[in-house]
Write a structure and sequence with these properties.
This protein has 394 residues and is α/β, with parallel strands linked by helices. Helix content is 42%, strand content 17%. It has 2 domains: 196 residues, Glycogen Phosphorylase B (Rossmann fold, 3-Layer(aba) Sandwich); 167 residues, Glycogen Phosphorylase B (Rossmann fold). The protein contains 15 helices and 13 strands.
Length: 394
């Protein structure tokens, strides 16, 4: 490992991987390296080979520690040790408090906090065994990291408002939405024949995949309609949802794919009748917020999105203009929207065309990257004298 990197990007997340977060990380690092020169990328080891090119070098953290909290602390210590070996770093961009806690021990580094989610809100859904005392301490750490960061980037106004409600200065928070690349032409030969609706991405509880499975029970008469699920997980990790589909008696109408490569996934998306994002009405989506990459990527390919009517989704989709919104958590309503789309296929076609135009007008990755470049320039100009106002946590 050389020691002349000018910037570092840190994420307690797998990369490269089949998750949407990995796509986001790739675009952020592209801009960071273009703005600051050689970039060091520190992440958790993913299922794909690490990134190594002229402008980005990746180091990956591995651990067999079963406790998520202990594993996160080990990651933070690992990052801190690497930063100690670097002499030329100017800027540190991190996605979570585990990277932040390491960075904030180095006052000369300009800290930029990219808040796509907060562990204190997301972890209780994934790790219910965590105690209230642990979560309360985690909230305090998150608040400290937000206070000490020079710039806070977030993908939606819903998350911005949550951060402001914590007492963070709104002037240092910038909304940088997710994006998508719009292809010049569609692939001609579909990988999957016939009519189908699609869910793709991760299967965390807040994604609402269980609601989508239950909606199929109201579509028994649609014999030719299938649900295709392209999971970013392995087949083993999807076992619970496969069992649920069997229990509901809808498993024979579902086609499963696991960790498809980008080319194959793109083909499946663009030939779907609808891409479904049935997000649940939970604290993770309502209080904190999100910015689902699956929505942007579907729209960019001209595939209309059927999604839950939540504030974070309304930042992207206008109902019946470039997508379809339904009340969350209601399988019957979701099924009714699917039924209408299958009965009147010209409507999804028109919505898909407008969805593609919405991405072209507002959410291309080139536009998002230009905005991020500008925010980096602003942050660098602001950085002079900034470190004198920094405080150490503890």
């Amino acid at each position: 490992m050389r020691n002349n990197y000018r910037s570092v990007y840190i994420a307690f997340d797998q990369h490269p991987s089949f998750k949407g977060a990995s796509t986001h990380i790739a675009h952020m690092c592209k801009v960071l390296s273009a703005s600051y020169g050689p970039t060091l990328l520190l992440t958790v080891e993913g299922p794909l080979p690490p990134i190594q090119n002229e402008s980005i070098d990746q180091l990956c953290f591995t651990s067999d520690e079963p406790s998520i909290l202990k594993r996160a602390l080990l990651f933070s210590a690992w990052v801190k040790n690497i930063l100690h070996q670097q002499d030329a770093l100017l800027l540190a961009h991190f996605r979570d408090v585990w990277g932040a806690m390491a960075v904030l021990d180095f006052p000369h580094l300009l800290p930029i906090f990219e808040v796509n989610g907060l562990s204190s809100i997301e972890w209780p859904h994934r790790y219910p065994q965590l105690s209230n005392a642990t979560l309360q301490k985690l909230r305090k750490i998150e608040l400290f990291c937000l206070q000490q960061s020079a710039l806070v980037l977030t993908p939606s106004n819903t998350i911005l408002q949550h951060i402001v409600n914590q007492g963070i200065d709104i002037n240092k928070i910038k909304v940088l939405p997710n994006g998508a690349d719009v292809p010049f032409k569609r692939s001609s030969t579909p990988l999957i024949e016939g009519q189908y609706i699609l869910y793709f991405g991760a299967l965390q509880p807040w994604q609402g995949v269980d609601i989508l499975l239950k909606s199929l029970r109201y579509l028994d008469d649609k014999h030719d309609l299938r649900l295709v699920i392209c999971a970013s997980h392995t087949e083993h990790q999807c076992k619970a949802y496969r069992k649920l589909a069997e229990k509901l008696g809808v498993h024979q109408r579902i086609v499963w794919y696991y960790q498809l490569d980008r080319e194959a996934l793109t083909n499946v998306i663009e030939h779907a009748l609808l891409s479904v994002a049935p997000l649940t009405e939970c604290s993770r989506n309502i209080e904190q917020g999100c910015s689902p990459l699956k929505i942007f990527e579907s729209m960019a390919l001209g595939t209309p999105v059927l999604a839950s009517d939540l504030p974070v989704v309304r930042e992207i989709i206008t109902n019946k203009k470039d997508g379809i919104l339904v009340r969350p958590g209601r399988p019957a309503e979701l099924a009714r929207a699917i039924r209408i789309a299958t009965d009147y296929p010209e409507s999804p076609l028109q919505l898909g065309q407008q969805a593609r135009q919405t991405i072209l007008d507002h959410f291309t990755w080139s536009k998002i990257e230009n905005e991020l470049t500008f925010y980096y320039e602003q942050a660098y100009a602001f950085s002079f004298g900034y470190s004198t106002n920094r405080h150490r946590y503890g």
